[in-house]
From TrEMBL:
InterPro entries: EFG_III/V (IPR035647), G_HFLX_dom (IPR030394), GTP-bd (IPR006073), GTP-bd_M (IPR032305), GTPase_HflX (IPR016496), GTPase_HflX_N (IPR025121), GTPase_HflX_N_sf (IPR042108), P-loop_NTPase (IPR027417). Coiled coil: none annotated. Its main location: cytoplasm. Keywords: Cytoplasm, GTP-binding, Magnesium, Metal-binding, Nucleotide-binding. Monomer. Associates with the 50S ribosomal subunit. It is found in: Cytoplasm. Pfam families: GTP-bdg_M, GTP-bdg_N, MMR_HSR1. The gene is hflX. The lineage of its organism: Bacteria, Pseudomonadati, Pseudomonadota, Gammaproteobacteria, Cardiobacteriales. The keyword Magnesium applies. GTPase that associates with the 50S ribosomal subunit and may have a role during protein synthesis or ribosome biogenesis. It comes from Wohlfahrtiimonas larvae. This is GTPase HflX.
Length: 429
């Protein structure tokens, strides 16, 4: 059969198939077409229909399968892409009947990720996800050796032995990849621990893919991240420093965009990449304010955040692309406690971006202490601790030889210092 499952080549021409069930959403078909475009595959035709229940053999109904076969023959397609997840047997049966390669939604997304991964960790994660997906489908690669298989001890043929060898090799490779990813995670945890120790706030950009996260990231940090009107234009997370007035330096992270029906293999394999969102002190959920499907997409983002355990992290909604709307100006909405809950901006046109920075600073200001203190020379140990916490913004010595220190530090560190050192309370208060 067709061994290069999900791996597209230049010049691939596809028939697309998307069936709507009762739980389907109109946005899913448009997103499916955008995914195919992102994979650099030419769409010849889109076949739509209703799906009451999946056919056990083909997933598609027999009439729909025949319609697809006629389209393949008439248009000369070399691949059929299904906007649903197929079982290995359904995938195999469709390829036998249609006589072309069949790729389901999961394999399509995995292929796009394989094209876009650039970092060492990203490539490891993509390979792990692909191998996890392929391992359940290995049998289809060796159906041409079915006649060589035996049914009892001593009669097993080359087909089965080759299958077992491949399974074993893939199993070993998966173990190797997991070990390498564990080491990468350890390095990340060390970096996170250092930021925690220094009291550096971490802000993660999350949102549906193509909502303008990378454009906003560039506007906030001058990072020069690649931006294109295409799903998953950027894949690997980027970290940059963001300076906030009255707060100091913060770390801002641009994460991979979310989509509906994110394949389970990707949620699992990319958990360490998405860990940036879990570990963040604040999430900026970037929403395309001009998108008629923004509420549906926001629900999908919330679902993925819950899957990765980031649903409890505080969040500010950033409504982007207001330049595409009429009579909407940049503004900030606050909750009853005076904390920012949503900001309306245009990252591309640089409208309201400073208001967003101010809103972020307001959020963190409540968690920081800013004041001036005076320490005698005898409190060198306390002074050293303040420097260790990166809490000293400015320092001078007065005529009495005392240290005049301007502090900016996390409130939690302030409270902890006062508890640890009784004398410190005299000076820190």
């Amino acid at each position: 059969m067709f061994e290069n499952e999900g791996q597209f080549t230049e010049g691939d021409q596809a028939i697309l198939v998307s069936l709507q069930s009762q739980n389907s959403h109109a946005e899913e078909i448009c997103e499916f077409q955008e995914l195919v475009k992102a994979a650099d595959v030419r769409e010849l035709s889109l076949i739509k229909g209703k799906l009451a229940s999946a056919n056990q053999k083909y997933f598609l109904g027999t009439g729909k399968v025949e319609e697809v076969r006629e389209a393949v023959t008439a248009l000369g397609a070399n691949v059929v892409i299904i906007n649903h997840e197929l079982s290995p047997s359904q995938n195999r049966n469709l390829e036998k009947y249609l006589k072309v390669r069949v790729v389901d939604r999961t394999a399509l997304i995995l292929d796009i990720f394989a094209q876009r991964a650039e970092s060492f960790e990203g490539k490891l994660q993509v390979e792990l996800a692909q191998l996890t997906h392929i391992s359940s489908r290995l049998v289809r690669m060796w159906t041409h050796l079915d006649s060589l298989r035996g049914g009892s001890v001593g009669l097993r043929g080359p087909g089965e032995s080759q299958l077992e060898m491949d399974k074993r090799m893939i199993g070993l490779r998966i173990k190797q990849l997991k070990k390498k990813l564990e080491k990468v995670q350890q390095v990340r945890h060390q970096g996170q621990a250092l930021r925690d120790r220094l009291g550096v706030p971490v802000i993660a950009l999350v949102g549906y893919t193509n909502a303008g996260k990378s454009s906003l990231f560039n506007r906030l940090t001058d990072a020069g991240t690649y931006v294109e009107d295409k799903l998953f234009a950027t894949l690997d997370p980027k970290h940059r420093t963001l300076f906030l007035d009255n707060i100091g330096d913060a770390v801002i992270v641009d994460t991979v965009g979310f989509i509906s029906k994110l394949p389970h293999e990707l949620v699992t394999a990319f958990h360490s990449t998405l860990q940036s969102a879990v570990d963040a002190d604040l999430l900026l959920e970037v929403v395309d304010a001009s998108d008629s499907e923004r509420e549906f997409k926001s629900e999908q983002v919330a679902q993925v955040l819950e899957e990765i355990g980031a649903d409890k992290v505080p969040r500010i909604q950033v409504n982007n692309k207001i330049d595409c709307l009429n009579d909407v100006i940049p503004h900030v909405n606050y909750n009853d406690e005076g904390m920012p809950k949503s900001v309306w901006i245009s990252a591309e046109k640089d409208l309201g971006v400073q208001s967003l920075k101010d809103a972020i600073a307001i959020y963190f200001k409540d968690k920081h202490i800013s004041k001036n203190i005076i320490l005698p020379p005898s409190k060198g140990r306390l002074r050293a601790k303040l420097f260790e916490l990166n809490a000293v913004k400015n320092e001078s010595i007065n005529e009495s030889g005392e240290f005049v220190i301007e502090l900016l530090m996390q409130k939690s560190d302030w409270d902890r210092l006062q508890k640890l050192d009784a004398d410190a309370q005299i000076y820190l208060n």
